[in-house]
């Protein structure tokens, strides 16, 4: 019998909508789920699609301050900006129903965490989640409530001794890191474009965690322009080692696909093929170190047609244990619908045609290479705290 995999989805999740012209268009979610459906991923053996109601205030308050939840409700109901709480800014404009929409996203990640921890599912995916910038008392970077942090708090409350959070979005996962900065039970790993060139400006290698939790914040900040070979080399050089060293009971991962070369906001040059490779790596590590327990979330990604649907359909396929050939043609009905609705011709296949080749860290360090220097800085800063040797695999 196939292992159960939960995919969180309902059209109600499209309500997280900052309005026309905002980069985080809910159309990217609809296009993704339509493509996943057209590819047969949602009907694969063991895959169950589950809807959710908004999270309760009690659930939100495990991470967010009561004053902030009240502010979100007030802004949502009355349309009034509250800049002290990050509401009504260019990044996080107020919209009607904002509280309910953001709380429903949180509920999706909670449902996935509950399913994975209880054993009802081996993996769960919430592509609407991954709102990693939200802080306990403020919205930030398109994120109102921090669903990843709420899900991690639930896992800890339900008995998880250690939770690893892996974030491969182009932007530093600052909110999740901040919330668990002093908690040695939570490992936060963020591989991102350097804060010297991209919001939020944090996530440097020397940021390793608070007192008593040193080594549980892992930051790998890559130079703008990093492509597949450097991105994959960096992840391979750090992520497997720290996950094995930490030995989590469950992995929560954030798969923002704004690392792609076509993304209009970030400055990395990663392909769909490299993103698929990393999703597969996280999946395999979950089976290796966490008895398969894996909650995968969406996140950033603003190439609405060309990138997001393919990247997250591949994520759904990997979680659902569906062997989806990268050369698979995008279903004609899906492509024609995109052309009719958007006036744009989408890619023809699930692949960008990239090789995915990279040079493993064990094959030598090049001090003249910016990526290698970033890797070295992270390994030197973090590995000793986890009992690992930064000079050896």
Can you walk me through this structure?
This protein is an alpha/beta fold. It has a single domain (5-350, 363-386), classed as Histone deacetylase domain (Arginase, Chain A, 3-Layer(aba) Sandwich), CATH 3.40.800. The protein is built from eleven helices and eight strands. An eight-stranded parallel beta sheet has the order 2-1-3-8-7-4-5-6, sandwiched between helices. Helix 6 (174-179) links the parallel strand 4 and strand 5. The longest helix is centred in the first third of the chain and has 21 residues, at 98-118. Pathway: Ketone degradation; acetoin degradation.
Throw out a few tags for this protein.
single chain, 393 residues, Arginase, Chain A, 8 strands, alpha/beta, 8-stranded parallel sheet, 11 helices
């Amino acid at each position: 019998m196939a292992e159960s995999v939960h995919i969180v989805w309902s059209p109600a999740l499209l309500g997280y909508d900052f309005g026309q012209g905002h980069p985080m268009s809910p159309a990217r979610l609809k296009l993704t789920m339509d493509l996943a459906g057209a590819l047969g991923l949602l009907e694969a053996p063991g895959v169950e699609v589950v809807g959710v109601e908004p999270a309760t205030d009690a659930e939100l308050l495990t991470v967010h301050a009561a004053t902030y939840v009240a502010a979100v409700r007030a802004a949502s109901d009355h349309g009034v900006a509250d800049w002290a709480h990050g509401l009504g800014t260019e990044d996080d404009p107020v919209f009607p129903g904002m509280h309910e929409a953001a709380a429903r996203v949180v509920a999706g990640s909670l449902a996935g965490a509950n399913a994975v921890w209880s054993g009802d599912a081996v993996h769960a995916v919430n592509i609407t989640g991954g709102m990693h910038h939200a802080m306990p008392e403020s919205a930030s970077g398109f994120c109102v409530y921090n669903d990843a942090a709420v899900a991690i708090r639930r896992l800890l409350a339900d008995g998880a001794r250690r939770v690893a959070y892996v974030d491969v979005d182009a932007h530093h996962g600052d909110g999740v890191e901040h919330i668990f900065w002093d908690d040695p039970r939570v490992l936060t790993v963020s591989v991102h474009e350097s804060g010297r060139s991209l919001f939020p400006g944090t996530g440097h290698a020397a940021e390793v965690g608070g007192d008593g939790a040193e080594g549980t914040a892992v930051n790998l900040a890559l130079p703008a322009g990093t492509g597949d070979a450097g991105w994959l080399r960096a992840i391979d050089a750090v992520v497997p080692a720290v996950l094995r060293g930490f030995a989590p009971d469950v992995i929560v991962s954030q798969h923002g696909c704004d690392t792609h070369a076509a993304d209009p906001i970030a400055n990395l040059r990663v392909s769909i093929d490299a993103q698929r490779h990393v999703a597969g790596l996280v999946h395999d590590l979950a089976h290796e170190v966490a008895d398969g327990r894996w909650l995968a979330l969406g996140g950033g990604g603003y190439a609405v047609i060309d990138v997001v649907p393919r990247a997250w359909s591949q994520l759904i396929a990997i979680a659902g244990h569906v062997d989806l050939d990268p050369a698979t043609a995008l279903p004609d009905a899906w492509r024609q619908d995109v052309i009719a609705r958007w006036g744009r011709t989408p890619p023809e296949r699930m692949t960008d045609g990239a090789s995915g080749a990279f040079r493993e860290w064990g094959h030598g360090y090049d001090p003249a290479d910016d990526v290698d220097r970033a890797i070295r800085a992270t390994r030197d800063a973090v590995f000793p705290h986890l009992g690992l040797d930064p000079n050896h695999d």
